[in-house]
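FORM 12-B: Structure-to-Sequence Request
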């Protein structure tokens, strides 16, 4: 039996209403066994151990952060079993390595997940895989899918495609009342207004001569959705991937209702700083300018936006070699989200660790209609993050099969999930001193 591990004075992020604090924490295998009262100065902690249990190995952990595992409110997995870009197994490894204990998959797949029999995907515990059901049949926005059947089969909610469904269809589906209090996720995006633009219509994009996507492609459908939310206040509408400063301001006037998500890459890159040849240039919704990025960060900080999504959309190596205008947009990168946002918002910004966990864990829980995660004795739903550890993976070590992981805007980065209840202790990156 391996010895328990006592983390001395680790930084705790216990729950959404608990302040940051330091405490001693006892880990036993993948389980968080106990959060101990801080010892009196000069004394050693004396955690109780059952007969036959070895004494815990102690590790000074004041530079580490312990919090609940992260929650991804929406990502994409097209082929769970034979996918060349990502499979159910590889996605589980990628999520685990990035500190994500819960991932909710959109119905965007082959075949489209719009029937109860297509909602049978699972992950081994303690990972949790949630599945969004489909609002329309085949995601084609022509006829409603069987809402009640999908929800009875375990769907966490219903989701549309990457564009706004016809308002008449959306209103009819909501008025039927089969969704109950389950969230209904829709994208405030009108494909016919995007002009097939690669990036948002900002001065930085105009200087580069790129095809641009006007703000109206998001703002008009957003206004229609907000009017529908007023007409049907009992509906649990969710807005997927807000991306413009104007959209954030329009939602702020309503004090953050309905809840809205933002893609993580939109918080780090913009058309004024990203090399057009780099991964992450072509996105849906379109990448904005510096003012959009700053507005999205401010919207998260003041609660106008509720959750940061990974919106994982994997490409295989062959498709990634296609010219930019011939390949599908999107990014992969569960393992990059926490370290890069920590570096940008906490280390180099003004955010606290608790603020970051709010948008990566507790906010997404509310977005999905789940109770907020907490650090609790006996739970495996925890991660240990080292902001100073070298980030990234060595050759052949990346658990994801996706070829379209972005390069960090500033090159090399730091930050790594070094241990978690999501993985076997033999796979931890944490350097534990040998037991005496």
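FORM 12-B RESPONSE
SEQUENCE OUT:
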């Amino acid at each position: 039996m391996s010895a328990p591990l006592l983390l001395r004075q680790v930084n705790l992020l216990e729950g959404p209403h608990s302040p940051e604090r330091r405490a001693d924490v006892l880990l036993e295998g993948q389980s968080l066994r106990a959060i101990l009262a801080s010892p009196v100065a000069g004394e050693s902690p004396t955690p109780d151990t059952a007969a036959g249990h070895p004494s815990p190995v102690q590790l000074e952990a004041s530079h580490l952060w312990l919090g609940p595992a992260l929650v991804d409110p929406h990502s994409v997995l097209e082929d769970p079993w034979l996918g060349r870009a990502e499979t159910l197994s590889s996605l589980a490894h990628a999520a685990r390595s990035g500190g994500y204990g819960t991932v909710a998959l959109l119905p965007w797949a082959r075949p489209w997940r719009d029937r109860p029999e297509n909602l049978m995907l699972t992950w081994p515990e303690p990972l949790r895989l949630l599945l969004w059901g489909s609002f329309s049949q085949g995601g084609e926005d022509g006829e409603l899918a069987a809402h009640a059947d999908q929800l009875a089969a375990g769907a966490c909610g219903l989701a549309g495609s990457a564009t706004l469904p016809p308002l008449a269809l959306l209103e009819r589906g909501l008025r039927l009342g089969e969704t109950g209090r389950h969230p209904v996720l829709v994208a405030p995006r009108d494909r016919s207004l995007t002009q097939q633009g690669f990036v948002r219509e900002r001065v930085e994009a105009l200087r580069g001569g790129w095809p641009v996507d006007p703000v109206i492609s998001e703002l008009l459908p957003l206004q229609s959705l907000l009017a529908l939310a007023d007409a049907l206040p009992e509906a649990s509408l969710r807005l997927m991937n807000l991306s413009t400063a104007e959209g954030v301001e329009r939602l702020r006037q309503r004090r953050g209702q309905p809840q809205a998500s933002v893609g993580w890459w939109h918080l780090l890159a913009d058309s004024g700083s990203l090399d057009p040849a780099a991964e992450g240039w072509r996105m849906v919704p379109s990448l904005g300018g510096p003012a959009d990025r700053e507005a999205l960060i401010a919207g998260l900080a003041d609660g106008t936006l509720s959750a940061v999504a990974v919106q994982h959309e994997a490409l295989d190596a062959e498709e990634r070699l296609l010219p930019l205008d011939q390949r599908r947009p999107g990014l992969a990168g569960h393992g990059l989200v926490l370290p890069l946002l920590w570096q940008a918002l906490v280390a180099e910004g003004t955010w606290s660790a608790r603020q970051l966990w709010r948008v990566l864990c507790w906010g997404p829980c509310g977005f999905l209609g789940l109770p907020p995660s907490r650090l609790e004795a006996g739970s495996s739903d925890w991660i240990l993050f080292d902001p100073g550890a070298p980030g990234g993976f060595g050759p052949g070590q990346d658990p994801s099969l996706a070829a379209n992981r972005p390069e960090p805007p500033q090159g090399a980065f730091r930050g790594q999930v070094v241990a978690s209840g999501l993985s076997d202790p033999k796979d931890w990156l944490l350097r534990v001193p040998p037991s005496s």
